[in-house]
């Protein structure tokens, strides 16, 4: 069966998340987005884990569904842990997503981790634990768990982060590196950027939303064609078999918050070559720049831009539908007009991913404005302009040149 999965997100028990991030809303938004398998996130949090046990019931092996309300979303047990520790004289801050096959396994992982730090303080707990030790603990509880370093390029909290991480998987996980089968590209990098490191050929690249509110799930996702079960999904990720793990859905990486280098407060955004020219020093404040994902990839890459390794899982770059509509209408994304057009499209075609990926321009035009239909098709074709994000500022998307939307809607009234 072919389906879309998003494994990494956060519940209302994580810091800076929406109070609406509960199982009912996640289930509802998964249907609106067209996501069939959704990570639970935050299984280490006692309150969230309690609601997982109360509100979910087993469906297929390792997958769960809401007890109430005939829901068809499947939940898969995941949680993110922030490991903060010192290694070789440097402070390391690395986020790791753990996948677990059963509630029993989660119970055991939580029991072990609660001896190390406070799991109640945050849905994404901070532990003073070496990432390698975390991997050991999790695999010791169950070999069926999967451990995936999160958003591997972001500067402050990741495996390869310029301010927090390592230069290789081996430097971080040592003799346990052979148990690292996958890594998350994160919003600020796409697979093409990761393909430039031969060291990553052995892992598969997964993509998740890391959503902090239900409406943001599926910003990035994974498309599978396997039997509906935890073991089948894990096997597809581990084996990197392109007949089972079909493709990933990506942000345009420029849209991510850490694509370029810069300083948010100084309003300075620089490309890797510009950063080199300034020797990594901010021309406004004189402090060192926050080096983003593109520069960091350049630093570690051993292949030229555009290289595609054999057997790589392909990807498609998309922009969330709400943003496309906002751009087509020339209004803010959280406006009534955008909501109205969004709901109309979901009602017409079933889900956001169906609209973004599959519906033809003609069909779109039958129920929505021509400038929205045109926007959706341009995104599919990659015809977008993006001002790159930097130092925590999201990139800005443009699909139309100035005044072009009005021209498109004028043409409609002529016909
Ligand atoms: Zn994270
Ligand atoms: Zn996260
Ligand atoms: Zn500065």
Give the helix/strand layout:
Layout: E1 2-6, H1 23-33, E2 37-39, H2 46-55, E3 56-58, E4 64-66, E5 74-87, E6 90-100, H3 103-114, E7 126-127, H4 131-141, E8 146-149, H5 169-173, E9 182-184, H6 191-194, E10 204-206, E11 221-225, H7 230-239, E12 245-250, E13 261-263, E14 268-270, H8 272-277, H9 293-300, E15 315-317, H10 321-329, H11 336-349, H12 352-357, H13 361-367, H14 370-380, E16 385-387, E17 396-398, H15 404-414
Parallel strand pairs: 1-2, 2-5, 5-7, 9-10, 12-15
Antiparallel strand pairs: 1-11, 3-4, 5-6, 6-8, 11-12, 13-14, 16-17
Helix pairs in contact: 10-11, 10-14, 13-14
The protein binds zinc ion (3 copies).
In short, what is this structure?
The chain is of the alpha/beta class and 415 residues long. The chain has helices spanning 23-33, 46-55, 103-114, 131-141, 169-173, 191-194, 230-239, 272-277, 293-300, 321-329, 336-349, 352-357, 361-367, 370-380, 404-414, and strands at residues 2-6, 37-39, 56-58, 64-66, 74-87, 90-100, 126-127, 146-149, 182-184, 204-206, 221-225, 245-250, 261-263, 268-270, 315-317, 385-387, 396-398.
């Amino acid at each position: 069966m072919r389906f879309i999965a998003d494994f990494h997100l956060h519940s209302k028990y994580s810091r800076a998340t929406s109070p609406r991030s509960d199982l009912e809303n996640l289930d509802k938004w998964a249907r609106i987005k067209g996501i069939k398998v959704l990570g639970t996130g935050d299984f280490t949090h006692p309150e969230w884990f309690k609601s997982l046990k109360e509100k979910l019931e087993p469906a297929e092996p390792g997958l769960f569904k809401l007890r109430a309300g005939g829901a068809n979303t499947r939940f898969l047990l995941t949680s993110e842990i922030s490991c903060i520790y010192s290694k070789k004289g440097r402070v390391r801050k690395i986020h790791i997503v753990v996948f677990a096959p059963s509630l029993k396994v989660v119970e055991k992982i939580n029991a072990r981790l609660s001896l190390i730090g406070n799991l109640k303080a945050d849905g994404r707990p901070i532990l003073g634990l070496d990432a390698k030790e975390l991997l050991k603990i999790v695999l010791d509880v169950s070999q069926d768990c999967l451990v995936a370093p999160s958003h591997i390029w972001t500067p402050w909290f990741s495996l390869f982060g310029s301010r927090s991480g390592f230069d290789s998987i081996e430097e971080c996980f040592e003799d346990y590196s052979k148990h690292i089968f996958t890594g998350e590209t994160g919003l600020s990098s796409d697979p093409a950027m990761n393909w430039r490191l031969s060291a990553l050929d052995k892992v598969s690249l997964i993509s998740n939303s890391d959503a902090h509110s239900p409406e943001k799930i599926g910003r990035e996702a994974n498309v599978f064609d396997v039997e509906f079960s935890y073991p089948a999904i894990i096997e597809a990720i581990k084996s990197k078999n392109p007949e089972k793990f079909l493709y990933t859905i990506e942000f345009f990486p420029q849209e991510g918050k850490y694509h370029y280098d810069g300083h948010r407060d100084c309003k300075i955004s620089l490309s890797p070559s510009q950063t080199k020219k300034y020797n990594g020093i901010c021309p406004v404040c004189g402090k060192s720049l926050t080096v983003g994902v593109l520069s960091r990839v350049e630093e570690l890459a051993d292949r030229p831009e555009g290289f595609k390794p054999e057997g790589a899982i392909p990807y498609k770059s998309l922009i969330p539908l709400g943003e496309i509509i906002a751009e087509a209408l020339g209004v803010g994304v959280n406006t009534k007009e955008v909501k109205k057009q969004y709901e109309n499209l979901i009602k017409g075609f079933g889900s956001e991913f169906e609209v973004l990926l599959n519906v033809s321009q003609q069909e779109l035009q039958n129920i929505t404005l021509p400038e929205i239909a045109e926007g959706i098709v341009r995104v599919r074709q990659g015809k977008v302009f993006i001002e790159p994000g930097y130092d925590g500022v999201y990139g800005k998307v443009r699909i139309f040149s100035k005044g072009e939307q009005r021209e498109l809607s004028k043409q409609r009234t002529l016909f």
